Amino acid sequence: MRDWWRLLGHITRITLREGRRSAVILAVLVVCEAGVIAAMGLSQRELVDDSAAGATGGVIAAVVIGALAYAVSAVTGRVRGNLLIYIVGRVRGRVSEEIQRRVSSIPTITHLEHAPYIDRWNRIFGSSQALSAMPWSALNSVVAVLGLAVTVGLLASITPVLCLLAALGVPLVLANRRADRLLRDSRDAGTELLRHEERLHELCVSPESAKEVMLSAGGPALNRRAAAMWETAAVRETTARLRGALWQSTAWMAYAAGFALAMVVVARLIRDDRSTVGSAVLVVSLATQLQSQLRVVLDSLTTAAEAGQAVAHYWWLRRYPVDDSGISPPSALTDGITLRGVGFRYPGAAADTLHSVDLHLAAGSTVALVGANGAGKSTLIKLLTGLHVPSAGSLLVDGVPLSTLSPFRWNARLAGVHQDFARLRLRLRETVGVGNIRFIRSPTVVGSAISQAGAPPFAGLETQLGAPFGGVEPSLGQWQRLALARSLMREVAGDRPPLCVVLDEPTAALDPLAEHELFQLFVDRARAARLAGAVTVLVSHRFTTVRMADHIAVLDDGRITEQGSHPELMAAGGQYAELYRLQERAYR
Ligand SMILES: Nc1ncnc2c1ncn2[C@@H]1O[C@H](COP(=O)(O)OP(=O)(O)OP(=O)(O)O)[C@@H](O)[C@H]1O
């Protein structure tokens, strides 16, 4: 509950910052609207009773109050709705920005790769509306409860038994909510089916997959499956609608019966001279408003509760460790990077991916990681770059644990390309320039990075990339060169040289000659950067490239089985030598 209040305070402060005057007007309107219902009912009662008694002054006063109440109701309803959309929209923008900023400032990628975390983000983003509306749902709840209390008080003032009418409004509102919930649940349950249905259709129309679908002649079967899924979801939704309508009709019948009984009670009171015709009018007026008042109370309580659920996720995010208090990495490596007994298990995985890895990446050297698919090479790269944190052992940078370095300052001293490089379909200048955002507008720096990576210049730096955006669609190899160019941006711009360059199959999509040239380029750079002691870590399945490395580590099922220089490993005659000879024979 403390978290709820703290968040309410936080969102209220954002609301006041975003539009203090609009917020104050809205708050006044919300409070005014609560009094309007009672004023309208009372003015109608006075109008009828004073007309019957021939009290002209009373009639005029009732007409003026009634007219004012109607006018306020009409104006406030419209203005209030628009103001609420405006204010909550602005606050939502700020809240979403804050959430995005926090998510992107987490230095590791664990939270982006694993289902429980991803579900949390989705829930936090999904509830940004409820969070932004928190001050209003809280105020609405308080005002609606007060308004309801006034209505019930007025009914009780005629005769206490009429309070039961308010009680009959509750099933009505609950039935409406149940109908909404049934519909929502059916849609939630259908979401997965519809997502599959959409994916199946996408398979048939997206250029990448359509080729395979055509080859396998599987199009009609996929379409049939997709249609069946859509139908199942549609039937579920229709059934939910019918069930909801049944609940609503039953509750309306009960409310209508209660209303009729209330009118009988009032009629008897009038007959016995214990009440007036005006009171009957008041009952009709209040009874018609009661249901909407109850709905507002329950709706605002629901919104507050929804926000309450989001509160827990929100504070979880706020408390997620984003620690940048660590020390700076050294300006140059003298010893290198050492892995001591490093183990790693992905969150939620049943087994470790890396087991007791001992490896020394000497300053200024080039180290190649080789091994079968799934051996753990990319995972090791992710640990070196701080994208994941080892589950066991230690990773030392010049003898200092990586965990004690500032993750952001360590990031700033990394360069390279990951296996799953991004295809940024922007303008060529931006696609490459994001590698060093300060120089994204510099044609000299961007142009130089492009030419050093041997990436195509296309029709100039402002060329739009990506066929879906009406631009040029680079080939896979060209995309990979663009990723390489991106990774060169920091160095080309003259930033501090990297301490660690990771190249995870950076040239898998390149032809062998291009791969050889590019790797040579990176090796030369690494040698040139020897002063900074940069370590270059390369993952490749091509042994002609791998043999150029100073040190080679062979990974098998998350363990290092062999390591040494190319001649040493060849002389040892182990797995490396066998694989090397196999590839050599294949290329002969
Ligand atoms: N995000 C992840 N969550 C859970 N398990 C993962 C994740 N990424 C990789 N793995 C698992 O870790 C193991 C090692 O994967 P990794 O990508 O490091 O292998 P690799 O040696 O680089 O393979 P390849 O040569 O195919 O690129 C695999 O069994 C893989 O299924």
From TrEMBL:
A GO molecular function annotation here is: ABC-type transporter activity
Compartments (UniProt record): Cell membrane
Q: Which PANTHER family match?
A: ATP-BINDING CASSETTE SUB-FAMILY B (PTHR24221), ATP-BINDING CASSETTE SUB-FAMILY B MEMBER 6 (PTHR24221:SF654)
Name this protein carries in UniProt: ABC transporter permease
| Keyword entries, A-Z | ATP-binding, Membrane, Nucleotide-binding, Transmembrane, Transmembrane helix
Keyword Transmembrane helix in record? yes
Organism the protein comes from: Paractinoplanes toevensis
Q: Which SMART domains match?
A: AAA
Give any Gene Ontology cellular component: plasma membrane
Task: Classify the source by domain of life.
Answer: Bacteria
> What Pfam families does this protein's entry cite?
ABC_tran (PF00005)
